[in-house]
Amino acid sequence: MTARRSQQGEKTVAVIPAGGAGTRLWPRSRRSTPKHVLPLGDSGRPLLRETYDRASKLATEVFVLTETGQREIIQKVLPEIDSAHLILEPAARGTTNAFGLAALTLRASHPDAVMLVLPADHVVSGRAGVSKAVRAAVRVAATSDSLVTVGLKPRFPSTGLGYIHAPGRMTDGALHVKRFTEKPDLATARRFVKAGGYYWNLAWFSWRLDVFIDELGLHAPRHLAGLEKVMAARAAGDEETAAAIYKRLRVEVIDRSVMEKTNRLLLVPGDFEWADIGNWAELGDRVRADVHGNSVEGQSILVDTTGSLILGSRRLVAAIGLDDMIIVDTEDALLVCPRSRAQDVRKVVEALRRAGKTGYL
Fold first, then answer.
1. Is 3's pLDDT higher than 70?
2. Per-residue pLDDT, 73
3. Per-residue pLDDT for 7 more than 60?
4. Residues 276, 22, 262: CA angle, nearest 5 degrees
5. C-alpha distances out from residue 33 to 6, 281, 294, 327, Å
6. What distance in Å separates the CA atoms of residue 361 and residue 353, rounded to the nearest whole number?
7. Range of the domain at 348
8. Domain membership flag for residue 4
9. Those residues with Cβ within 8 angstroms of residue 336's Cβ, 6 or more apart along the chain or in another chain
């Protein structure tokens, strides 16, 4: 890690990525009600609201990074946010382009800032632990030429999360990252948990803008070149050209384009409760269950039913003789599937799209 003196006036700018629709949480998560505006945490408030309030305590300014089509959705949840604090993607093109667009946008107004990335759709608790880890990551990013991520020691062998191998000793509050592993199979995940030195990838990042842009140019030069053209078109007031260029950029996640390749990555271990609710089974694991193992929201009558997640809407849900099932009832759609098939809900979304039934999306 190369030491660097923090510049006078340097500030922390939080960027909250709030895009996508959370297809595995259909039928509640849709284009009009994406995952990050759903009340999936214990507070009963939208995840975006929770994230924004958390970020406001950790940064000098907070920006929301979202698609143009979600602007009204975001401002409905966050009525206090103005246009100057919205970074708009013309379309969703992956986190490499999204984070690059955010970094280049902020460089124009906050060239010496440390950028903090906190995704909008995570369920988090443990304020003191979160604050300690995030502030440490920002400090390391501000005083070094490094990209910094926050990781958590895995509590169980998850196959739905990425892993970061950082087995060395702590230096100045951070660990050197050896490698990334994206969503391993169960046997590999068990080996990681047993071996130690592995951390869950939360996609919480911090970096100086100049460091990140340099690494983007080194490892994803075509993305950076395209993004520079987008910024030039926007500076000229030509949003149509900017959108056309952006929509042609190759979709890629930042983990693969930069994080797996850079030798500048450091990890700050965290100690707090965190979950990326990726499907209904994972949400069911967090909702308090009754004596029969059922997690219920809304009105229901359950007969000989165990270990199931029942989420009602306007009407009574009755179930007889079910075990380890998921039932999600909404005004115009009903989902029924075994908990073991929760990851496959995205296939329903794909089937609806192919069938042209986009009204349900």
1. no
2. 92
3. no
4. 60
5. 41, 19, 25, 19
6. 8
7. 280-360
8. no
9. 325, 326, 327
- Closest to 276 (Cα-Cα) out of 122, 136, 143, 76: 122
Average pLDDT over residues 97-112: 96
Residue 245: φ, ψ to 5°: -65, -45
Phi first, then psi, for residue 208 (nearest 5°) are -70, 145
* pLDDT tier at 249, thresholds 50, 70, 90: very high
**Same domain (yes/no): 181, 266:** yes
Q: Any idea which of 89-98, 158-167, 191-200, 275-284 has the lowest mean pLDDT?
A: 275-284
Which H helix or E strand runs over 152?
strand 147-152
Instruction: Examine the fold and report which residue of 242, 275, 308 is the final residue of a domain before the chain moves on.
Output: 275
What pLDDT shows up at residue 287? 66
State the maximum Cα–Cα separation within the chain, in Å, rounded to a whole number. 66
Instruction: State the SS3 of 38-91.
Output: CCCCCCCCCHHHHHHHHHHCCCCEEEEEEEHHHHHHHHHHCCCCCHHHEEEECC
Burial (0-12, 13-18, 19+ Cβ within 10 Å), 82 = exposed
**Helix H or strand E segment including 275:** strand 273-275
φ/ψ bin of 96: left (φ > 0), alpha (ψ from -120 to 50), beta (otherwise): alpha
Range among 100-109, 174-183, 283-292, 341-350 rated most confident: 100-109
Q: By 3-state DSSP, what share of the chain in percent is helix, strand and coil, each rounded to 5?
A: 40, 25, 35
Task: At 235, list the tokens.
Answer: 């500076």
* pLDDT of amino acid 5: 40
Share of the chain above pLDDT 90, in %: 67
Same domain, 219 and 310: no
- The listed range with the strongest mean pLDDT (202-211, 290-299, 344-353) is 202-211
CA distance 3 to 66: 34
Q: Are 193 and 152 in contact (CB under 8 A)?
A: no
